[in-house]
Automatic annotation (TrEMBL):
The keyword Transit peptide does not apply. InterPro entries: Asp_de-COase-like_dom_sf, MoPterin_dinucl-bd_dom, Mopterin_OxRdtase, Mopterin_OxRdtase_4Fe-4S_dom, Prok_molybdopt-oxidoreductase. This is Dehydrogenase. CDD domains: MopB_1. It holds the Pfam family Molybdop_Fe4S4. Transmembrane segments: none annotated.
Length: 738
């Protein structure tokens, strides 16, 4: 460890590692090595909170095994050599356009991974890349994650990005399903120090109820924890809806269509009919409904455990149906919509689902994407439109997608593959070219996506802490990739980023009637000027005639980049405010409680109600010192409790005669895993974390803590019908002694 000396400097930056957006205070040595990380106590949102991952940001950023130069693979020998940026882009410009010329645009696919939600490059420079490729074969981690929430929100509110979040700091009652923020730090609910906020809820007399097949750390903090049979949340929520109607407990306060249709649909799901399926007694369900209705304010919140399930979209829909029926949507203490500072995509027409379908499975698109669960089919099924080339950006689908191992075999059949990634890993090993992004600390940071889901309105911009030198930023990599994919060379002497930005700036200012003010945009480069424009035109912006006031002391006038630069700890933009009907984009201009595609899907739910729960089922879990697949090469983040084991209830372990290891078999695959008996899991359920399985990894620490790939067991042939989302929870398995 480098000593803190006079040459060190301390700088502020947002942590990019999870959705909690904590402010960090980072101490750097003269050589730009991280010598210390602390939570930024002056950040008005995170107030000094820091988790073990944030504390390890330096080690992660300086991992000696991360890639620093482009890599090119020789297919004949399967060996890699470092290449110059010119060589790498030249190869792409030679191969991709030729492939498209021969086989058409659909022959190229794109897969976008989770870290894109945390980078400026992902937010601002993926859209031009998608346009340049102009293929319908766009896939992302969203269909292994939150697509059900986005589809439900799109149908109910008209915009899939209009997602309500629980008003954590003011609610009196929180019903939480399938989320474990004490390990994950929260998701689709940006809340730094989520654990502290939950403790505060209880301290002010509020009630927290957690529904989870595992007694998680979050469950232990709650007033009440209920085990639920995996995959049955939609039944539970429908029965709560049923009870609200049956007992006249509804109190709708917003303009809503379709209340009668919801009442009718719920008649099929009285509490006594779902009790067995959910494992929750009818009396308890009735009590949950009464408590929800009686609380002065309440919010229902459900996350990944309920999204990555067969009825994910119905569950997410019912969450907000409950928020509406109990009068809690869009009111303080209920479920509210954040107001992010940067101007986002302005949607003018209502969200539509299934505008086109995939070639092999006829899966409907959602938000311009096909389900990642069908990517392997599109690569492997011969015929016109077959995917022959793939570009991945910040994704590791071999470990993160359902039937990931099968997808890995499909990747090996591609004719050409490019990955923008910091590692040579389970996915990128199939690439022909890997383009590594710079260090995190060499990148600027602004949370374009996550601040739309914040529990308090807030903005913070961080400039790069370490100079880039003569290598490209990730934004430039994506811009040059877009050029190479269309067979173009960057114009000599012209910054390819500036070319992209100029088009967007001119278009946006023209629409706003402000083209003559182009010269006023501030910033060191075109990206910053774009951010300045988005802030100025945004809901608190200097150029927005209807801007909301910025109430923070010391900030006068509307927001622009300079105001954010002057407030490096971030700016508090106040508690969430009611936003209906302004945010609605539905045809009716009301909240649509009974969208047709969802009512249609209720039939599928109904048909499965009486299904007997036999055998064991598999679910996932997250670990505090981990993040999906890519943080296992940092010594401080592996080992201890952070290991890849199968959680099994001791009664099941005994009944099944399990020893130290078990063989777990599903319809999709088979694995041998170490067994960890624990009372914290519901009988009949086993849990395995995802993101492991590094036995062939090029990273030495990850290889030494390999674990197994949980997605060998998950089955890509089963998805949540409306959204196409992958199913990771409730996978039928057999468990036998090894
Ligand atoms: N069984 C099971 N599977 C799951 C889940 C589950 O709960 N259970 N969860 C799902 C969820 S919620 C998600 S979001 C997905 C995640 O799915 P993916 O996004 O496909 O997987 P990650 O492991 O997050 O991979 C991120 C990749 O980005 C690279 N990377 C990291 N930082 C950067 C960067 O700044 N730039 C670039 N270019 N690359 C970077 C890493 O090296 C890694 O290769 O996994 C899903 N898979
Ligand atoms: N430390 C850490 N933090 C992370 C990540 C990480 O890998 N590690 N990943 C990040 C990502 S990509 C995301 S999307 C978020 C996710 O954030 P969360 O949604 O909070 O994710 P989990 O911690 O996996 O919690 C999901 C819970 O659902 C439960 N569950 C499983 N099946 C069911 C079911 O059928 N019904 C119900 N009611 N519960 C069920 C599981 O037992 C688990 O406790 O976390 C992010 N933060
Ligand atoms: S909670 Fe998330 S944002 Fe905060 S320090 Fe940890 S990883 Fe970073
Ligand atoms: Mo995720």
């Amino acid at each position: 460890m480098t000593r803190v000396t006079d040459d060190t400097r301390t700088r502020l930056r947002t942590c990019p590692l999870c959705e909690a957006v904590c402010g960090l205070e980072i101490t750097l040595s003269a050589e730009n090595r991280v010598v210390g990380v602390r939570g930024d106590r002056e950040d008005p949102f995170s107030r000094g909170f820091l988790c073990p991952k944030g504390a390890s940001l330096g080690r992660l950023d300086e991992d000696p095994e991360r890639l620093s130069e482009p890599m090119i693979r020789d297919r004949a020998t399967d060996t890699w050599h470092a290449a110059s940026w010119e060589e790498a882009f030249d190869l792409i410009a030679e191969r991709l356009p030729a492939l498209v010329a021969e086989h058409g645009r659909q022959a190229t696919a794109l897969y976008l991974g989770n870290p894109n939600a945390h980078t400026v490059a992902g937010a601002l420079y993926l859209p031009p890349l998608i346009r340049a490729l102009s293929t319908r074969n766009v896939y992302s981690a969203s269909t292994a994650d939150q697509m059900p929430k986005q589809v439900a929100s799109g149908l109910m509110f008209g915009d899939p990005l209009t997602v309500p979040v629980p008003d954590l700091d003011r609610t009196d009652h929180l019903l939480m399903l399938g989320a474990n923020p004490l390990e994950s730090n929260g998701s689709l609910c940006t809340a730094p120090d989520y654990p502290g906020r939950l403790k505060a809820l209880r301290q002010r007399g509020g009630r927290l109820v957690v529904v989870d097949p595992r007694r998680t750390r979050t469950a232990k903090l709650a007033d009440e924890h209920l085990f639920i049979r995996p995959g049955s949340d939609a039944y539970l929520l429908f029965a709560i809806v049923h009870t609200l109607f049956a007992e006249n407990l509804t109190a709708v306060r917003v303009e809503a269509e379709g209340i009668e249709e919801v009442r009718t649909a719920a008649t099929a799901f009285p509490p006594e009919r779902v009790a067995e399926r959910t494992g929750i007694p009818a009396e308890t369900i009735v009590r949950l409904a009464r408590e929800l209705a009686a609380a002065p304010t309440a919010a229902v919140y459900a996350r990944i455990g309920t999204c990555t399930a067969e009825f994910g979209t119905l569950t997410q829909w019912l969450v907000d149906v409950l928020n509406v029926l109990t009068g809690n949507l869009d009111r303080p203490g209920g479920a509210m919509f954040a107001t992010a500072a940067a101007l986002g995509i302005v949607r003018t027409r209502p969200f539509r689902l299934g505008r086109w379908t995939s070639r092999v499975r006829q899966a409907p698109e959602a938000m311009g994407e096909f389900p990642v669960a069908t990517l392997a089919d599109e690569i492997r099924t011969p015929g016109e439109g077959r995917v022959r080339a793939l570009v991945t950006v910040a994704g590791n689908p071999v470990l993160s997608a359902p039937s990931g191992a099968r997808l890995g075999e499909a990747l090996a059949e591609l004719e050409f593959m490019v990955s923008v990634d910091r590692y040579l890993n389970e996915t990128t090993r199939h690439a022909d070219v890997i383009l590594p992004p710079p260090r995190t600390l060499q990148s600027a940071h602004y949370d374009f996506a996550l601040l739309n889901f914040a529990v308090r309105n807030y903005a913070r911009y961080s400039r790069p802490l370490v100079p880039l030198g003569d290598r490209p930023s990730e934004s430039e990599i994506l811009a040059r990739l877009a050029l190479a994919a269309s067979g173009q060379q960057p114009e000599p002497g012209r910054d390819p980023l500036a070319a992209v930005d100029e088009l967007i700036i001119a278009g946006t200012l023209h629409k706003a009637g402000l083209l003559d003010r182009r010269a006023e945009l501030l910033g060191d480069n075109s990206t910053e000027q774009r951010i300045d424009m988005m802030l100025r035109l945004g809901p608190y912006g200097e150029w927005n005639p209807e801007a909301q006031p910025v109430e923070q002391a010391g900030v006068s006038g509307g927001l622009n980049l300079q105001v954010l630069l002057d407030h490096p700890h971030g700016i508090d933009l106040g508690p969430l405010r009611p936003r209906l009907p302004g945010v609605l984009r539905t045809a009716s201009q009301r909240v649509e409680l009974a969208p047709r595609p969802l009512l249609d899907d209720v039939e599928r739910l109904r048909a499965r109600l009486t299904e007997q729960a036999t055998g064991m089922v598999l679910i996932g879990r997250r670990q505090l010192r981990s993040n999906n697949s890519w943080m296992h090469n940092v010594p401080s983040l592996v080992g201890g409790s952070n290991t890849c084991t199968l959680h099994v209830h001791p009664d099941d372990a005994e009944r099944l005669g399990l020893g130290a290891e078990a063989v777990v078999k599903s319809a999709a695959g088979i694995l041998t895993v170490p067994v960890e008996p624990t009372e914290e899991i519901m009988p009949g359920v086993v849990s395995l974390p995802h993101g492991w399985g590094h036995s062939d990894s090029a990273q030495s620490v990850a290889r030494a803590h390999a674990g197994v790939n949980a997605n060998v067991l998950t089955d890509d042939s089963i998805v949540d019908a409306p959204s196409g989302n992958a199913v990771f929870n409730g996978v039928p398995v057999t468990v036998t002694p090894a």
